[in-house]
Write a structure and sequence with these properties.
The protein has 222 residues and is mainly α. The protein is built from eleven helices and no strands. The longest helix has 17 residues, at 3-19. InterPro entries: Cyt_c-like_dom, Cyt_c-like_dom_sf, Cytochrome_c4-like, Cytochrome_c_Oxidase_Subunit.
Length: 222
């Protein structure tokens, strides 16, 4: 075959491969909408067709979160370092490849338009929640939440997920899970220490503050 046409053919094949969805991408979309038929139900039943979650029920948004973070959470549900009666059987019913595919799938979903603007007004700058989020409480060795989770809770990399764009019910539930030890997958047990220094009103108010923060379209690594 003529070398020139060999190169052209190779380029055409490469372009077609890039344009076509990967098997993992197609599998993940099917998992999200139909489940795997082996004990893992469709993800959209709790997390919504757009990955935006269900605020009233406390199901978090997954759309736009870091893929490595999402994969680690699925692994944690399966190995028990994040103990949750709903997610544990789901995660254990997924293969490692399925967990990876789902993590990538949800990380690529755009932020649902409904979450770009908070449903509630942010608390006053001098409220308890605002002060904990932006300044911390150093008398109890509690740093500002923004020091790890970024300004307004936009998230930083795979270890510190976005808090803006999550519901107050979900954020509060996670703080209480760290408090009682049913969630133990945080780096250096940082969140276990911080949550132990908070009382119930602290948790309610700081969760409300982050839930009221605006969140624009996330970057590739939120």
């Amino acid at each position: 075959m003529n070398f020139r046409w060999s190169v052209v053919a190779a380029c055409a094949l490469a372009a077609a491969a890039l344009a076509a969805p990967t098997a993992h991408a197609m599998d993940a979309a099917q998992l999200a909408t139909q489940g795997n038929g082996k004990g893992a139900p469709p993800c959209l039943g709790c997390h919504g067709a757009d990955g935006g979650g269900q605020a009233a029920a406390g199901f978090p948004r997954l759309a736009g979160l870091d893929a490595s973070y999402l994969r680690r959470q699925l692994d944690s549900f399966a190995d028990g370092t994040r103990d949750n009666p709903v997610m544990k059987p789901v995660a254990t019913a997924l293969t490692t490849d399925e967990r990876q595919a789902l993590a990538g799938y949800y990380s690529r979903l755009p932020l649902p338009a409904a979450l770009a603007r908070p449903a509630t007004q942010p608390p006053a700058p001098d409220s308890r929640g605002a002060l904990l989020a932006t300044r911390g409480r150093w008398s109890r060795q509690v740093p500002a939440c923004e020091q790890c989770h970024g300004p307004g809770g936009v998230g930083v990399g795979a270890a510190f997920p976005p808090l803006a764009g999550q519901s107050a019910a979900y954020i509060a539930a996670q703080l209480r899970a760290w408090q009682r030890g049913s969630r133990r997958n945080d780096p250096l047990a940082l969140m276990q220490h911080i949550s132990a220094a908070l009382d119930d009103q602290d948790i309610t108010e700081v969760a409300g503050w982050f839930a009221a923060q605006p969140l624009g379209q996330p970057k590739a690594t939120p």
